[in-house]
Amino acid sequence: MNKCLKIVGCFLLLDFFLLTSLWGQMNVAHQKGIVSGEVWKDTDGNVINAHGGGILFNNGKYYWFGEHRPSSGFTTQVGVTCYSSTDLRNWKYEGVALAVSDETGSDIEKGCIIERPKVIYNQKTGKYVMWFHLELKGRGYGPSRAGVAVSDTPAGPYRFIRSGRVNPGVYPLNMTREEQELTWNPKEYEWWTPEWRKAVDKGMFVKRDLEGGQMSRDMTLFVDDDGKAYHIYSSEENLTLHIAELSDDYLSHTGKYIRIFPGGHNEAPAIFKKDGTYWMIASGCTGWEPNEARLMTASSILGEWSQLPNPCVGKDAKITFGGQSTYILPLKDGGYMFMADAWRPKSLSDSRYIWLPVRFNEKGIPFIEWVDKW
């Protein structure tokens, strides 16, 4: 009798564990909302590792690309990961879209730094094009390059093409002839003095980097209604944002670019367009610490840009709810989603994701407010 009870008890215990496991899998596979700042897992139950990323919507499916970050350290050991979803809540791991190389001396050699990967689709060529911020192995943040890769399918694998600085030998469209003819010695200026700030405004660092090309760090991509694509990146020692037009195949730059807010110290740009108006959200430069977001707007992407107050409202608005902008995704219902990273530099793989709806006030100006679940 006791033996029978023990057997029954074992079966009951086994059933309990099976049900618990099944319930856990159901919870993983059927997320009913977006809850920012929590640990997010894919449909296999593994923690999603796709930081500083962006999303491509293609043929009814969302593809999320991001940095695979290590549990310790800051260099790239794996590459760019890809996840897919039909509802923005339940994400399937598609694998490594762009892997680092084991080849010594490769631009994307294991141990380099790959950040802010973004993917866009080229209607003319039928190719998927990835751009990213790249730092060569062992060189810190000195190289400040833009890298490009291409694939025949959205999830990849992507084939690395090249990296380099942007638009060598070319002046910005909005840099005057007088400014182009000025000569500078940056070593003569003490940073953050009025004289230094004036020199930055007039293009001192553009002139310094003219021959080799402009620095490109935190970046995003944008495809306009006419199919033209733009590379937006933090340049000039992270002091000034540049907006550069890409070639028709999206694999290089045309030489047309502008500087916006010289000396503004903006990074982490995220851009969208609504009713003919361009909006951009960026952050200040405070390392891994969150800061107050900046809102910018223009009626022409290569035209004049103006700056507006912080688009975040409510509690923790002055630190962007603990995050830093990375992308703004247009939604199928006509809305927009703000994507940010809540960085944890002690273990970057544990950094969290903040995704919030973009709303608009009575004047049509976008704002972002914290939502616990949506």
From TrEMBL:
GO MF term set: hydrolase activity, hydrolyzing O-glycosyl compounds
Marked site (Important for catalytic activity, responsible for pKa modulation of the active site Glu and correct orientation of both the proton donor and substrate) residue numbers: D218
Alphabetized InterPro entries for the sequence: Glyco_hydro_43, Glyco_hydro_beta-prop_sf
One Gene Ontology biological process: carbohydrate metabolic process
Pfam families xref list: Glyco_hydro_43
Hydrolase listed as a keyword: yes
Keywords: Glycosidase, Hydrolase
Gene3D superfamilies reported for this sequence: Glycosyl hydrolase domain, family 43 (2.115.10.20)
Family: Belongs to the glycosyl hydrolase 43 family.
The protein's name in its UniProt record: Beta-glucanase
Organism of this sequence: Bacteroides cellulosilyticus CL02T12C19
